[in-house]
Amino acid sequence: MNYKKTILALFFVGMFMIFSSSAVLAQDTMKKDDAMKKDEMMKKDDAMMAKEDLRPIVAVISAEWCPYCKKVEPVVAGLMKDYSEKFNFVVFDVTNEKTTAEAMEKAESLGLGDFFKDFKGKTSAVAVLKDKKIVYKTSNNGKRADYEKAFAAALK
Fold first, then answer.
1. How many domains does the chain have?
2. pLDDT (tens digit, 9 = 90+) per residue, 85-120?
3. Considering 13, 33, 52, which residue would you say is the last residue of a domain?
4. Which of 75, 97, 126, 146 stands the most exposed, by the fewest C-beta atoms within 10 Å?
């Protein structure tokens, strides 16, 4: 008689564990699905905001290993600070395969896929685009005045 109670108790404990673990797995799956949906929504929001943004774009091709990029970086950072209300600054990181793939995805979402394909190998390149057309481009240029002149022309 005690054996039957023990077996019955073990059966119920086993069933409880099975149902508990499947509930936990279901919750994990739902959390992952929610996270994926959230990521997709954020990407769509970023793309929609970029399409609605009518400011000229300042596109920068940069890589951590590029010595010329380090020369241009402080100038571009200052320009970003001073001109962020008038221009949409976008930095495309081509440091490695992963960052390059992410940069390509970003470029395509902004409608700049062709620009990125043409310039991804030209680190330290900076371009000003108005209506998705290049109105100014330079490379390895640390002269703030050159950018300010190009910005003034792009805002006309």
1. 2
2. 999 999 999 999 999 999 999 999 999 999 999 999
3. 52
4. 97
12-41, pLDDT tens digit by residue? 666 666 766 665 555 666 666 655 655 565
Q: DSSP letters of 7-44?
A: HHHHHHHHHHHHHHHHHHHHHHHHHHHHHHHHHHHHHH
Boundaries of domain holding 34: 1-52
Predicted TM-score (pTM) of the model is: 0.66
User: CATH number, domain at 103?
Assistant: 3.40.30.10
Please report how the helices 2-52 and 97-109 are oriented relative to each other, as an axis angle in degrees rounded to 10: 60
Q: What's the rounded Cα separation, in Å, for the pair 50 and 109?
A: 8
Out of 18, 33, 52, pick the residue that ends a domain: 52
Angle ∠(110,98,58) on CA atoms, nearest 5: 35
Could you identify the residue written with the tokens 């069933």? 15
106-111-113 Cα angle (round to 5):
65
Q: Are residues 37 and 75 in the same domain?
A: no
